[in-house]
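Hey, quick one: can you model this chain's 3D structure?
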Amino acid sequence: MLRRTWAVIQKELTQMLRDRSTLVILLLMPVLQLILFGFAINTNIDHIPTVVADQSLDAASRAYVEAMENSSYFDIVGYVASDSEVTRAIDSGEARAGIVIPPGFAALVERGEAQVLFLVDGSDIFTTQVGYAVAGVVAQMHASEVLVEKLARFGLPTDGGLPIDTRTRILYNPDLEQMRFSIPGMVALLLQTQSIALTAAAVVREREIGTIEQLLVTPIRPLELLLGKIAPNLAVAMINMLTVVAFGVLVFGVPFQGSFGLFLLLSLVYVFSGLGLGLLISTIARNMTQAQQIIMLVLMMGVILGGFMFPRASMPVVLRGLGNLFPLTYFIPISRGIIAKGIGASQLWGNIAALLVYCIAIMAAAVGSFRQRLD
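Sure thing. Here's the predicted structure for all 375 residues.
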């Protein structure tokens, strides 16, 4: 019995050592997961990109902005002229929060009547929760310091009402409904999962059972073969996208704020980019087991580094750069922008351009790698 068992163990070890690429993936995956979860997953959100509309430009307004920035929760990325420009900056993705300070701020502080408007991007659950909570705390602390300093100048007791009142407003999702956060990201995640997994598995399966060679001896060209493989998966992914959006709107009551035609067109480009990534995986994988492992690895990294679960702004620069290798990174802002915010192509042009370039590049790389593999 032990001899037979040992024989089986030897056979399995021989097969494992022979398939070195799969063995490397199996050995490196735990290390990669540890790195990703250790550095990329950070629920302590800070350094939120923030724009300021300082309509007062006096010492009191500058002190207020400095207090926000010194808290390390808010990074001032620009100054604009009005609250409408603050909203535009949040729409375009340039900022996640905005501060609007009214004219004559110093005089209002002296009279104890100053009010500041703090705008938060309500399409991102983590930014909303942290920005909403922290803005009030930091503002209250600063207001207390201003009050103490003011009373001390006149030799009065340091108690009384605060001279600055910060009003926080959550854009796009004021009631903090969970499904309004989840549905746009779920659409992006579903499309990536469908497009990558189905295409990679289909091509590898053909190679594994030997039918791909039979197809290639026919007059069909490699590119035509790949497009034929893509078409059914494209249809399946788009049908699933429509199903998820319909359920979100009709069952969960999530309003679709933007242009459905624009969303459908960009979803098609996004699916093509995922199909290209799936084809590229199919040229790397030697068998179905290895393909499934690579697919799991790619999907996990895409979910973590693409901004589906955690804001990319809180990740180290290296991991943010690595996240650019996944189409999910570009489509999540598009999906959230169109569905939750109702914004158009003019505010999303950066992510749209990046997605188009990614789609062309990944399809070219997949076709080139497939031809090279055949040769």
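One thing worth noting: The chain has two domains: 48-171, 178-374.
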